[in-house]
Every structure is written in structure tokens, then in C-alpha cells.
Write a structure and sequence with these properties.
Layout: E1 3-4, E2 12-20, E3 29-34, H1 39-43, E4 46-53, H2 60-74, H3 84-106, E5 115-123, E6 126-132, E7 136-141, E8 144-147, E9 153-157, E10 160-163, E11 176-181, E12 187-191, H4 193-196, H5 201-208, H6 215-228, E13 235-244, H7 250-258, E14 271-272, E15 275-283, E16 287-294, E17 300-306, H8 314-329, E18 350-352, E19 357-359, H9 360-366, H10 372-391, E20 394-395, E21 404-407, E22 412-414, E23 421-422, H11 423-427, H12 446-449, H13 456-472, H14 484-489, H15 504-513, H16 525-533, H17 547-550, H18 552-575
Antiparallel strand pairs: 1-2, 2-13, 3-4, 4-5, 5-6, 6-11, 7-8, 7-12, 9-10, 12-13, 14-15, 15-16, 16-17, 17-18, 19-21, 20-23, 21-22
Helix pairs in contact: 2-3, 10-13, 10-16, 15-16
């Protein structure tokens, strides 16, 4: 197969392939490479795979074809925001479940559909390897051949081995995963056991090294040599040369971000990029927000423009652009809708739906002691909005009352996605260094300050803080965590000490939601909503609790009184 080109600064590969039935009547191996074009090359990379259907099963060929075809096609249908690991994991889990179900329907394992599988995604200069069975992916670099997978076989007797892991063999399949950086000139070899079981590494290197410019010839020679050496199985070899690993074009990426100029200062009555500016909604030192009317459709929208104060700040520009990218991916009645441009833009700005409401911070000032049921409803709506982010493998990272809107009917929407962290986005190298801590101090989970990787539970922590603040008007630890020392020293303030109608079980739910340790925190958004509605005995709220936990103020007042009594007694004794 000739060079498989890819545009721009994405990865580029050349491919050679050959497969024969060998000594068997049929060829149950399958293999392939997909090099997408345009945006998919950047968001998903290049996918390649090999599979070997277990010949003792009647559906061996169908099984191997299903593994490879589903991987090469369905992977490109996954969300662009998902990480490679998550996207492929979802696809392969579905493949295994389907194959296993087919075998169960036939009630005979020898008539089932079982196949080994080894797949690789090349994205952002990294090889993401997925493997189960006894096919093999190897990397040839600088004259050294290294296996990137290991065979899943178990020895059962003298010279006898059985396949220990494969697709369709069991409902729950453990799939090996590893990520390895690739370099220009690396050669990847995908081989079935009919090839690599009969050829030693030096022999493979001897054949492939001089034929790096003719990969089809190299694949043919490897298959032929293994067959000559007595291979009794199907023989398949797919060779992929890395012509460019896909590192980001630093200059090109920055040029894309800064290609559109910042808008001029806008004012009511002005026409701008096909919009009539109606009025200014909000302004700060970072952004300006305007109510606008589309001159073509007459629809009302909101324009958000960047501040000229950051015209030369690449971090700010990237985060501003990211807000629109994330907003288009996340769809929920409780997330502000980002609109697609109705026409080519001449300036950098974001267009969203118009939502006639106020920030939750303003609402909290107007409602200093809201009803418990009202708070539950607000928290539940925010949780639904966050769930839309998390389903796309995106963490909001800056959830706070200022970034939540509520209208007069009580409808809640999350806004401002510029600080969001998307796994798929982070896999792509960037021309700028993104800040590690991007949220607002009072709502930022402890793990950010301890250098740990944030997760969906970091957003849940912020929601727990908001719930606590809605009910009490205060923060659960008195203030936000500014340093690791704060994380160690600050103690949770029971909500019941600040508001007498908060039941002990609800207090326990709030404490669980804002636990300092992510692993001890409430696991799911739905669980937090449920725990705020009704008692959860698993939280242990009915166990005896020390006074310092139940009522810290009373504890310290009592301790101070006791000290005073001791001092008075000692003074009286000293005067005798």
C-alpha cells in the first residue's frame, strides 16, 4: 500500500500489508488502517488494527472482521472531547458484549464468535495501544524491535498453550492499554501469531530494515519467511511507518487562535458582523457582553467579546476560544446554548442564546434564607447541567454562583465554559501553557492545590459548596483553600450550627459532598441530589459524633470556660 497522506500538521504514515491463509483452508485474520481527513485527523488521529479469529469457533472470520471494522469505524463516531482511552474503551466494550452474546445464543463455545484484537490510535505524537489475545504490535526504532503488547496465553501441558483472553470469550473482558510516544521514522509491525511465533526479532529486523521504503514488499517477505519456517496458522503482517507523529504545529495553532482580530468597542445602535447591538448586559476587565439582534433573521442573541486588555495574551485567547468549542459539544436545558455562526466572522467573539435571568449570586443576595425545597431544586438542575459536561468527558472547573443563571421561573443554566478541561482537548499539544489552577478559590477542590489530577468529583465538590452556601450563606470550611496548609488545617463547619432547620442527615450529605479526599467524596451527582432529598443511612449520620464536630463553637466556648475555671482555682490557691 502506498503512502497514506494526511493534511496539515497532523500525523502522516505509510502502510504495507499482506495476509494469507497459509496451511489452513480459510483466512480468519482481519486488519486495516484508517487515515481520516480534516478535523477528524486532529481530534481522533489515525486508527490501525489487527485481529485473529479463533479457528476453533465457527464464526472466527466474522468475529475478527467485526472487531477491526467496529474499531476503525465506530471510534470516529465518538465525541471529540473524549480521550482516546475512553472512546476506544466504549467501542471495544460494545464489540465484546455483542460477540459474547452471539456465542451465548448458540449455546456452544465451539460455534461462538471469538477473536484476538490489537489496535492502536496515533494522536498528538502518542501511540495509544489496546490489546487482548496473542496478536502483536511491535515498534522498530534504531535497529531495536520492542513488543508493545504481551500475549495472553496460559500453558496447560507440555508444549500446549490456550488463549487466556480474547473478545467474545467472556462478558467482562480486561483490555491492556498503554501510551507510548512515537518519533518520525518509527516502524510499527502488526502481526498475527502465525508470523511472530516463527520469526525471531533479528530475523524480522533483517527483513524490514532495508525495505522501509517498500513496506508491501517487507510485509510479503515476512509472511513468506514465516510460512517457509513451518507456520501452520494464518499469516498476517501490517507495517506502518511513522512519517510524522503528529506533533502540533506550534506556529500554525497560535496563528489560528489569533487570526481573527478583537472586536472594536461596541455600543447600542451599532451594526457589527450582521448584528444590531441593542444594549450592554455586562462588562468586566476580561469580557463584554451585549444583547444583539440578527439583522437577517431578527432573532435575539448575546454576543460575548474579549477585552482588548488581553489582545497579546495567548492563554487568554485560547481559553476564550475554548468556551465556544465546549459549548457546541455540551447540550442540556441547564447549560447555556452556544450558537453556531450564521455567517463568516470577521472578529473574535462568541454568540449564545439570550437567557433572561440573573446570576445565582444575585439571587442569593435577594434570598438569604431560601426554603430547603427551593435549594434542592436549584442543586438538582445544576447537577443535570454538570452531567451533560461529564458525559462528554469535560470538567467545568469554574462552577460558582457567578457562573450559574436563574430566571424568574426558577430555571437554572450553567454559563462560562472557558476554564473547562476536556480530556480529548488536553491530548492535543498546545502552543501555550495553560494555567494549572483556573477556578475560583472558594469553590476549588483541594486536589487542585495538592497537585492531583482533577476529575468529575472536583465539579461535584464545587456543587457541594454552592449547596452549603445556598442554605447557610457561608462556606463549608469558613473560606476557600489557598494553600496545601489550608487543606490540612481547615475543618468542616457543620451546617446545622448555622441554620437550625437543617437535619443531621442533610448535614452529613453536605459534608460528604465537600470531603477533602476525592475518593471519600460523593461519587455521583445523582447521589448528591438523592442524599439532599432523603436520609442515606450509609452516610453514618446516626452514629455518635464528638462535640467538636457537632458544634465546634460550643466545644471551644466550653473549653475556654473550663480554662477560665482552672485559672481562677489556681489563682485562689496561690493567694492562700
Amino acid at each position: 500500500m502506498s503512502n497514506a497522506p494526511s493534511p496539515g500538521s497532523g500525523p502522516r504514515v505509510s502502510v504495507g500489508q499482506h495476509s494469507i491463509a497459509g496451511a489452513k483452508d480459510r483466512n480468519d485474520d482481519s486488519y486495516g488502517v484508517v487515515v481520516p481527513t480534516d478535523a477528524l485527523l486532529s481530534t481522533h488521529g489515525i486508527a490501525m488494527a489487527i485481529a485473529d479469529g479463533m479457528s476453533s469457533s465457527e464464526g472466527a472470520k466474522e468475529a475478527s472482521e467485526n472487531c477491526v471494522k467496529s474499531f476503525l469505524e465506530d471510534y470516529y463516531c465518538t465525541h471529540a472531547s473524549w480521550s482516546v482511552k475512553k472512546s476506544v474503551g466504549v467501542v471495544l466494550k460494545a464489540v465484546n458484549s455483542w460477540l459474547f452474546a452471539q456465542g451465548q445464543r448458540q449455546h456452544h463455545s465451539d460455534r461462538g464468535m471469538v477473536s484476538t484484537f490489537s489496535g492502536l490510535v496515533l494522536k498528538g505524537g502518542t501511540a495509544h495501544v489496546f490489546h487482548a489475545g496473542d496478536c502483536r504490535i511491535s515498534r522498530l526504532r534504531d535497529g531495536r524491535l520492542e513488543a508493545l503488547t504481551r500475549e495472553h496465553r496460559v500453558r496447560v501441558g507440555r508444549g500446549r498453550e490456550h488463549l487466556a483472553r480474547a473478545f467474545g470469550m467472556d462478558h467482562n473482558l480486561e483490555i491492556d492499554y498503554r501510551a507510548e510516544p512515537l518519533e518520525t521514522g518509527d516502524v510499527l509491525l502488526f502481526t498475527s501469531d502465525g508470523v511472530h511465533d516463527y520469526l525471531a526479532a533479528p530475523e524480522i529486523i533483517e527483513i524490514v530494515a532495508p525495505l522501509k521504503t517498500d513496506l508491501d514488499a517487507a510485509a510479503h517477505q515476512l509472511v513468506a519467511r514465516a510460512f517457509e519456517k513451518g507456520s501452520t496458522d494464518n499469516l498476517t503482517c501490517q507495517i506502518v511507518r511513522i512519517d510524522a507523529p503528529g506533533h502540533a504545529d506550534e506556529a500554525g495553532r497560535f496563528k489560528t487562535l489569533t487570526a481573527l482580530p478583537f472586536p472594536p468597542e461596541l455600543a447600542p445602535g451599532m451594526s457589527f458582523d450582521g448584528y444590531d447591538i441593542v444594549r450592554e448586559i455586562h462588562t468586566s476587565n476580561r469580557t463584554q457582553v451585549y444583547l444583539a439582534k440578527d439583522t437577517a433573521s431578527g432573532e435575539i442573541a448575546v454576543l460575548k467579546t474579549p477585552s482588548v486588555n488581553f489582545e497579546d495574551d495567548p492563554v487568554y485567547i485560547e481559553m476564550f476560544a475554548r468556551e465556544e468549542w465546549v459549548g457546541r459539544l455540551v447540550a442540556s436545558p441547564h447549560v447555556l446554548k452556544v450558537l453556531s455562526p450564521a455567517r463568516p466572522r470577521r472578529h473574535l467573539y462568541t454568540t449564545t442564546e439570550y437567557f433572561d435571568g440573573q446570576t445565582l449570586r444575585q439571587w442569593m443576595r435577594d434570598h438569604p434564607r431560601p426554603e430547603l425545597e427551593t435549594v434542592r431544586g436549584i442543586v438538582e438542575q445544576i447537577a443535570k447541567g454538570l452531567r451533560a459536561f461529564h458525559r462528554k468527558d469535560i470538567i467545568h472547573q469554574d462552577l460558582k454562583p457567578e457562573n450559574v443563571m436563574i430566571d424568574r421561573h426558577g430555571l437554572v443554566k450553567i454559563i462560562d465554559f472557558g476554564s473547562s478541561r476536556a480530556a480529548g482537548f488536553d491530548e492535543m499539544a498546545s502552543a501555550v501553557e495553560r494555567p494549572r489552577l483556573v477556578g475560583t478559590l472558594d469553590y476549588t477542590a483541594p486536589e487542585y492545590h495538592l497537585g492531583d489530577r482533577p476529575s468529575h468529583r472536583s465539579d461535584l465538590y464545587a456543587l457541594g459548596v454552592i449547596a452549603y452556601e445556598l442554605l447557610t450563606g457561608s462556606l463549608p470550611y469558613g473560606k476557600g483553600f489557598a494553600t496545601p496548609r489550608d487543606v490540612a488545617s481547615l475543618r468542616f463547619i457543620p451546617a446545622g450550627t448555622l441554620r437550625d432547620d437543617i437535619a443531621i442527615w442533610m448535614q452529613a450529605a453536605l459534608e460528604k459532598a465537600v470531603h477533602k479526599q476525592p475518593a471519600e467524596r460523593t461519587e455521583a451527582l445523582s447521589a448528591l441530589v438523592e442524599d439532599l432529598h432523603r436520609p442515606n443511612a450509609a452516610l453514618g449520620y446516626d452514629r455518635p459524633r464528638p462535640l467538636i464536630e457537632r458544634n465546634p463553637l460550643a466545644f471551644w466556648q466550653g473549653l475556654a470556660f473550663l480554662q477560665l475555671v482552672v485559672i481562677l482555682i489556681l489563682s485562689w490557691l496561690a493567694t492562700r
